[in-house]
């Protein structure tokens, strides 16, 4: 175990044995668990899930625990058993991977409510939360096309099912002169393959790249910085990786959604089924703009986003 993971584990153990007082509703507050397919230090998707758990503990005064590297069904089953024995009754599985095993385990642990992300689930005690990435990808594509000097932009996605891929393509293609290169890593964390795609894009003249994979986005942004081209951050606000490199970021406020779901569960209001979230729900946004994005472009893009939130209509012409 990495040293910092050890200290994080000690922190969670302290949370569980410290005897948190009841919160929100009268009676005993629930215990909440989190399963992560990766690790909490990826500066992306898993980090935000972990932050969501910490928010629950700090703001709702609820006992929490987590487990990392739960990347097989056998590990999921073992972790759920251990959580159940510890009295945990709400379990988050941080990703699409957990949808199927949670659907199956929901039939076994009927007193536990299972929550996963971006996959289809079934069952009276199973919920899936879907981030609709199309619009965020669309606005990212619009900005990429506007800021490209070569009229060649790229996206290095993890999987074809990511709706932000189509959104990015459609947003960039509002300018018919823009050429969009799309590559799929077929993995969330294969940074070596992602960097290979990046190098290929550079060879083709791409000067704005969108690494839509939380396990390699930081490495690709660093490569973009070295190459002197623009990048768009993913999942978190990553302008701090380079204000002259990162134009903006497509931000999924999953940590905020964790707190909302925990509140619903504590009040007995959490429903089973599959639910979709977008800009209108306050959990998807664009991050801060980089220093190279002109004020006029920022203003137009912000206006387009406001209109989308109000009407659901996306722009039909590029930023001028």
Automatic annotation (TrEMBL):
One of its GO terms (cellular component) is plasma membrane. This is BMP family ABC transporter substrate-binding protein. The keyword Membrane applies. InterPro entries: BMP_lipoprotein (IPR050957), Peripla_BP_I (IPR028082), PnrA-like (IPR003760). It is a lipid-anchor. Pfam families: Bmp. It comes from Halalkalibacter suaedae. It comes from the Bacteria. CDD domains: PBP1_Med-like. Residues 31-315 form the ABC transporter substrate-binding protein PnrA-like domain. It is found in: Cell membrane. The lineage of its organism: Bacteria, Bacillati, Bacillota, Bacilli, Bacillales.
């Amino acid at each position: 175990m990495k040293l910092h993971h050890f200290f994080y584990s000690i922190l969670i153990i302290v949370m569980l044995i410290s005897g948190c007082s009841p919160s929100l509703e009268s009676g005993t507050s629930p215990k909440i668990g989190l399963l992560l397919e990766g690790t909490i230090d990826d500066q992306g998707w898993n980090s935000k899930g972990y932050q969501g758990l910490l928010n629950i503990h700090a703001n709702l005064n609820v006992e929490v625990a987590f487990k990392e590297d739960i990347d097989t069904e056998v590990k999921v089953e073992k972790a759920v058993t251990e959580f159940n024995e510890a009295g945990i009754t709400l379990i988050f599985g941080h990703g699409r991977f957990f949808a199927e095993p949670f659907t199956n385990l929901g039939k076994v642990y009927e007193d536990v409510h299972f929550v996963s992300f971006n996959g289809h689930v079934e069952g009276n005690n199973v919920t899936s939360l879907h981030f609709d990435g199309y619009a965020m990808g669309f606005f990212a594509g619009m900005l990429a096309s506007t800021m490209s000097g070569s009229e060649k932009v790229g996206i290095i996605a993890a999987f074809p099912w990511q709706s932000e891929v189509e959104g990015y393509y459609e947003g960039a293609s509002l300018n018919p002169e823009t050429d969009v290169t799309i590559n799929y890593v077929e993995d969330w964390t294969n940074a070596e393959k992602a960097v290979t795609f990046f190098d290929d894009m550079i060879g083709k003249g791409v000067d704005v790249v969108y690494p839509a994979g939380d396990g390699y986005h930081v490495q690709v942004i660093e490569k973009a910085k070295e190459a002197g081209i623009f990048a768009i951050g993913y999942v978190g606000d990553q302008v701090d990786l380079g204000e002259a490199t990162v134009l903006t970021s497509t931000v999924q406020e999953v940590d905020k959604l964790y707190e909302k779901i925990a509140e619903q569960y504590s009040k007995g209001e959490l429903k089973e089924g599959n639910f979709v979230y977008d800009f209108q729900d306050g959990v998807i946004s664009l991050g801060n703009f980089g220093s190279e994005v002109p004020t006029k472009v920022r203003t137009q893009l912000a206006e387009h986003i406001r209109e989308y939130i109000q009407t659901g209509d996306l722009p039909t012409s590029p930023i001028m």
